[in-house]
Amino acid sequence: MKIAIFGTGSWALALGQVLTDNGHSVMLHGRDPLQIKTINEEHRNPKYFGNDFFFSPQILATADIQETLNDAHYVVLAVPSNALRGVLEQIHDLITPKMVLVNTAKGFDVQTKKRLSCLIRDFFPQRKHPGVVSLIGPSFAEEVIIRKLTLITSTSKSKKMAHEVAHLFSNEYFRVYAQQDEVGAEIGSAMKNVIALASGIIDGLGYGNNARAALITRGLAEVVKFGTYFGGKRKTFQGLTGLGDLSLTCNSLHSRNFRAGIEIGKEDSSQNFLKTHANTVEGILATLIIHTLAEEHRLELPIVNAVYEVLYHEGKPSEMVKRLMARPLKGE
To answer: Considering its fold, how many domains does the chain have in total?
Structure first.
């Protein structure tokens, strides 16, 4: 079976390899002519995996959208959350109701503040709705590409489609659980990036493991409060897209959000990082959107609020920690 993947980054390539290991052919869509040439002729992408890593010759790339989508039943959207709207605009007229769109981004749409599966559905009239599935959970491309054991979820309102996508990707090193709580799964996977920024800040300021454990625990409480308010199921936040995603992202240098937090903490300021850092850090935009929604709905999220002050109002991380520690005592 042919699978179309939009993106030529680390996660697009890692998922492409999973699919070729499962016997499928993969066509990536990219914009960088050099990357496309290197993928097709040398089966490498040094920008993400160095010069010495080679992947399957069954993974091909093109800049032609029509060529990417030809004969594809499954269309994987492996781009950052802030790029998803642009991709949907490009492919809108070529998507049919028989296709299944598999989103892998974690975050919200900046224009509407909606979850990404909602954004995708909004692009298509009811009669032309394709299937929509979110493939999300605790995973780093750096480990998947070398076939280290990974467990994630296939989440969709449609039980049938969730199971279809789970079977499409699952193999001996990549296990996918199907579930139907889109709200809980997508909010958990997006919001953990904000908590990961806070975890990195704690590390950068020089606090120890006690502080990080407390931060993650109280961060999970905020994720549950926010997620259940908007309709997510409490048990979802105990699973892979909740506690699993949170614990991975808040503790690993593979996490861009955790690394960003460390830099901000070391400087006790976000200003230099925000001016000079070029990588996509999903938690920065997610912080703005979650903070805005929390204020609109009068939800108290102290950690999210502290990260927001650091990123958007030049708050000093060290002062934010003091404020959090000085909050009135209460029962857990």
So the answer is: 2
Domain of residue 143, residue span: 2-180
pLDDT block averages, 10 residues each, the chain of length 332: 94 96 96 91 87 88 96 96 94 92 95 95 80 96 96 96 98 98 97 97 95 95 98 97 96 94 96 81 94 97 97 94 83 78
Token pair belonging to 26: 């993969």
Three-class DSSP category at 207: coil
What is the Cα–Cα distance from 104 to 116, expressed in whole angstroms? 9
Report CA-CA distances (Å) from 115 to 11, 89, 136, 209, 234: 20, 17, 13, 32, 18
The residue among 91, 84, 204 whose CA lies nearest residue 134 is 84
Contact 166, 178 (CB under 8 A): yes
pTM over 0.85: yes
Same domain, 220 and 318: yes
Burial grade of 136 (CB within 10 A; 0-12, 13-18, 19 or more)? buried
- Paired with 124 in beta bridges are none
Q: What is the distance between the alpha carbons of residues 121 and 130, in angstroms, rounded to a whole number?
A: 8
Report in angstroms the alpha-carbon separations of 136 from 143, 151, 161: 15, 10, 15
| Domain end (from 180, 195, 225) | 180
State how far the Cα of 268 lies from the Cα of 25, in Å rounded to an integer.
48
Catalytic residues: 192
CB 38 within 8 A of CB 47: no
